[in-house]
Each structure stands twice: as C-alpha cells, then as structure tokens.
Design brief:
The protein is of the alpha+beta class. It has 4 helices and 3 strands.
C-alpha cells in the first residue's frame, strides 16, 4: 500500500476513533493502519491538526519531519456516514 493511501486510511479511521472512543472495531482498524505506517513505511510520531479546510498531518520518516494535507470532507466522510446512520454502526459489548 502506498504511503499516501496508508496515511489517508489511518487518518480517516483515527477521526472516527477520536469521536467514538468506545468503537472497538474502529480502534482495531486504526491500530492496523498505524502498524502499516510504522512497519511498512517506517513512519512514527504522527500528529495532525484540522484548520483552513484541511487536515495537516506531520510525521517522522527516516528521522526527517514530513507533512501532507487532506481535505476535511475527504477525511470525515466515514464519520459523517456513521453519524447520519448510527443504527448501522452499533457498538457491541465485549464477551465476558
């Protein structure tokens, strides 16, 4: 998976986990994409902020600080869909 795609996928689900911290499926998916970034691309120390219609993502790659940007509407599409149809995205409790 190309780095730009992995960053997009990670940030899209990270926005969901930030809004739904009890969503186990989203948390597991975010961890998977973070592992891809870390293990396959050597990315660490990822930070992001939302401003001026964009998500700005900064990260370390080979000890060099890099950044990329994504439009807000592109990143928040999954969160928007979940919020529009919450009955389709129910959180189920863990089996005890």
């Amino acid at each position: 998976m190309p780095l730009q795609d992995a960053l997009y996928n990670w940030l899209t689900i990270k926005v969901v986990t930030d809004a739904r911290s009890d969503d186990r499926a989203a948390l597991e998916t975010e961890e998977m994409f973070f592992s891809i970034l870390n293990d396959d691309h050597g990315i660490s120390n990822i930070q992001y902020e939302k401003n001026d219609g964009m998500y700005n993502v900064q990260y370390l790659h080979e000890n060099e600080r890099k950044q990329t940007r994504f439009p807000i509407e592109l990143i928040e599409i999954m969160l928007t869909q979940i919020q529009a149809e919450p009955e389709k995205y129910v959180n189920y409790p863990e089996n005890e």
